[in-house]
Amino acid sequence: MKRTLSLLLWALMTAAVCAAAPPADTLRLRADNISAIVQALTLEEKAELVVGAGFKSMIAGVTGAKGVLVPGAAGETRAIPRLGIPAIVLSDGPAGVRIEPRRKRVKERTYYATAFPTGTILASTWNTEMVRKVGVAMGNEALEYGVDVLLAPGLNIHRNPLCGRNFEYYSEDPVLSGRMAAAMIRGVQSNGVGTSAKHYAANSQETHRSGNDARIDLRTLREIYLKGFEIAVREASPWTVMSSYNKINGEYTQSDPWLLTAVLRNEWGFDGLVMTDWTGKRNTGRQVAAGNDLMEPGRASQAREIVRMVKSGELDGVYLDVCVARVLGLIVKTPRFRGYAYSDSPDLAAHALVAREAAAEGMVLLQNNGVLPLKGAVKKIALYGIAGYSPCIGGTGSGFVHAPYTVTVPEALRKAGLDVDRALEERYGTYLARHKKKGGIVGSMLGTGIPAEFSLGDAVSAGSADAALFVIGRQAGEEEDRRVEDDFLLTATERQNLEAVSKAFRAAGKPVVVVMNIGGVIETASWKDLADALLVTWQPGEEGAHALVDILLGKACPSGRLPATFPLDYLDIPSSANFPYDAVDRGSRNTFKVSRDKGRRNVDFTEYKEGLDVGYRYFAGRPVSFPFGFGLSYTRFSFDEMEVTGASDGSLLVRVTVTNRGDRAGKEVVQVYIHDRKPLIKKPLRELKGFAKTGRLLPGASEMLEIRIPPYVLASYNDGTNRWECPAAFTVEAGASVDDIRLSTEVDRP
Ligand code: BGC
Questions:
Q1: Where residue 23 falls among pLDDT bands split at 50, 70, 90?
Q2: Using N-to-C axis directions, what is the helix angle for 227-236 and 174-189, rounded to 10°?
């Protein structure tokens, strides 16, 4: 009764305010009348505009609910028809458009989207042009499926390999992450749809992500966790940025004016919109005042809170107006506002080719004793490992994509003219079918994990196969971090199987190729000797198996390089001292509720005590299994010459000439590191400041690469002076990995 009464009162009040507004037919939203529209909106309408329309589109694919623009999209904004303000559609994610592939009321067609290679493998290409191309294709699918903003790219730093979402992110290095994100943003936005650089910032773990306080010193925060976002914002102007779930140093990122306004807008010049990650109601007024323009997915109670706070004077209406203007500023850029007639028929076949090309370019060859590319005598393959038959094309959670199909390894091998051991295929097929029956791998809204390996027993024999292909699969995703046991480490069954296969094939003089189809780094040091060749495909999207076979047969020459270090041991990683290592309380799975802070270390708060010692910044010069930037090729390159000059804007211009000295065509990556010879503050041995990749060089061909390092990338943050400072005496190093420096030049600046 009370509720009905208050609703009635609310309706009457709204009607009264609406009555005072200008007649609906005189004013319509245009790109050049945003301030007039802000003035014409009622307080209630303003509050509605900054609060999303809820979960209706996300769950519509399951419930079949009517009245949503794109079923399965992550969210919509609210429309205000009287002022010509349409609702717009926001959809995940970093590996492709995540919408429901089937609609209850549309039987005759489907809405599948290309599952592109995930973030980590895209970063492994070290090819910004390739990533831009993927972005162009992904953005086109967003456009053609009626999506206005793609909730991508994800560019959190791989602080620790156990973060469940690393597959969505690019690298342990902020420059590589930032450049990849910038390329992706440029590609997607070239379609006239928006992006959302996420999750800003320091969302480095999934365990209790909605309450975790990341405690980070200012220099580390700026140099490691913010720098990638800075690069993306300065170089590619994403239409939106998504503030993360977590806190940084005691303040939720979503209500931190320093992060959202002082740094993001005032320092870096961001002029787009900030939306929250998909959070429940927090202190909405503080979020608005901090410069968080849109609350997602949005609840009616948030809008009510805003209205109440403005009325009571707790929230200055000026802050609200600014947020509203930014929401309108976003809307007028969108296809929906332009009235774009989307087809619901993107060219999936063309995009599959892009996905395949990018996947092949991002796979990293880590070991090869001459068995790859496979020789002509290899006709029949014995394929081991669940992920060979049911590939992990991506991770789970919001980064999951409903792909039209997944190419399996046997399919790809056969298509390339190779034979596959049928008995083995049947054995895996039966196991997978049994698992599927139990509901294990039926695609859900957000994807599901892969089943555990079964034991091959002792009776492994090479039989008539000419080579063994052993695929190790890993899948993780949102809301949960990975474990050390049985995930970072091989399971006992995997290890036994690998040992048995390796022994049998080696005894028969036949090669063993191990493929790591993983979302994040795993331990390799203790078993890699069992492999003649070792390849990491990461999670390569729907066409991954074709790309893998392209590499195995030498149709593609490997040119991927690691975006993250493979350590010898988990405990070697400095952040392992402060990360939820097999935490008992693996975090509330309830993302949307802010739970009470119980003071649990690595759950409620995490101390980033390792500071700058993230990835190779710590490991350079120390023993690792595979270093950052490493990757083999089927050909050889020499780094011939390096020239370093200065540009008028203060940038360094590094020119390196590379020559293909082998007998196959291939691509090489030049990584430019800086070593400060007279540091005023403590610095890592070397830091990546730029990189470039050659085109496909024929044997004997050379290319000069030019790498530009702007001052804001060269500088380090001196927390004594609170300023960014460029080094004065430093060495510019051109490397094929962080541990393989080929050329260096000393630079002294006055
Ligand atoms: C994820 C975001 C995603 C959003 C919408 C959240 O749980 O953290 O990355 O964009 O959901 O699906």
A1: low
A2: 30
Annotate 452-518 with DSSP letters as a single string: PPPP--S----TT-SEEEEEEE---BTTB---IIIIISPPHHHHHHHHHHHHHHHHTT--EEEEEE-
The C-alpha atoms of residue 291 and residue 136 are separated, in whole angstroms, by 30
> Distance between CA 13 and CA 394 in Å, rounded?
49
Positive or negative torsion for Cα 200, 201, 206, 210: negative
Contact 707, 656 (CB under 8 A): yes
Residue 224's Cα: distance from chain center in Å?
A: 16
Kindly report, residue by residue over 477-502, the tens digit of the pLDDT. 998 899 999 999 999 999 999 999 99
For ligand 1, atom 11: residue with the closest CA: 278
Q: At what angle do helices 128-144 and 174-189 cross, to 10 degrees?
A: 40
Active site residue 739: no
Question: Ligand 1: residues within 6 Å at CB?
Answer: 74, 92-93, 151, 198, 277-278, 398, 478, 591
pLDDT tens-digit series, residues 32-70: 999 999 999 999 999 999 999 999 888 886 676 778 999
Element (H, E) at 388: helix 386-389
Q: Which residues have C-beta within 8 Å of that of residue 44, sequence separation ≥ 6? A: 13, 14, 17, 303, 307
Residue whose pair of structure tokens reads 């270090």 in the numeric block: 565
pLDDT in tens, 631-687: 999 999 999 999 999 999 999 999 999 999 999 999 999 999 999 999 999 999 999
Residue pointed to by tokens 């699969």? 473
pTM passes above 0.85? yes
Find the helix or strand (DSSP H, E) in which 536 lies: strand 533-536
The alpha-helical segments, DSSP class H, found in 111-173 are 119-124, 128-144
Using the predicted structure, report yes or no on whether residue 24 has a pLDDT greater than 60.
no
Output the pLDDT for position 750: 74
Instruction: Assess contact for 701 and 661: CB atoms under 8 A.
Output: no
Asked whether the CA dihedral 548, 552, 555, 556 is positive or negative, the reply is: positive
- What's the chain's average pLDDT? 93
Please report the sign of the dihedral spanned by the C-alpha atoms of residue 51, residue 55, residue 58, residue 63.
negative
Give the separation between CA 377 and CA 371, rounded to whole angstroms: 11
**How far is the C-alpha of 281 from the C-alpha of 295, rounded, in Å?**
9
d(CA 561, CA 632): 8
Work out the number of other CB atoms within 10 angstroms of the CB of residue 251.
15
Which residue is listed with tokens 């995703």?
Answer: 477
Per-residue pLDDT band for 594 (boundaries 50, 70, 90) equals low
Atom 7 (ligand 1) nearest CA: 278
Nearest-CA neighbor of 365 among 224, 205, 557? 557
Let me know: does 653 contact 646? Beta carbons within 8 Å: yes
Q: Of residues 148, 213, 256, 277, which has the active-site annotation?
A: 277
Which residue has the least CA distance to atom 5 on ligand 1? 74
Distance 248 CA to ligand 1 centre (A): 19
The closest of 385, 630, 626 to 525, measured between CA atoms, is 626
Query: What is the CA(91)–ligand 1 centre distance, in A?
Result: 9
**How do beta strands 75-76 and 512-517 pair?**
unpaired
Q: Which residues contact 301 (CB under 8 A, 6 or more apart)?
A: 281
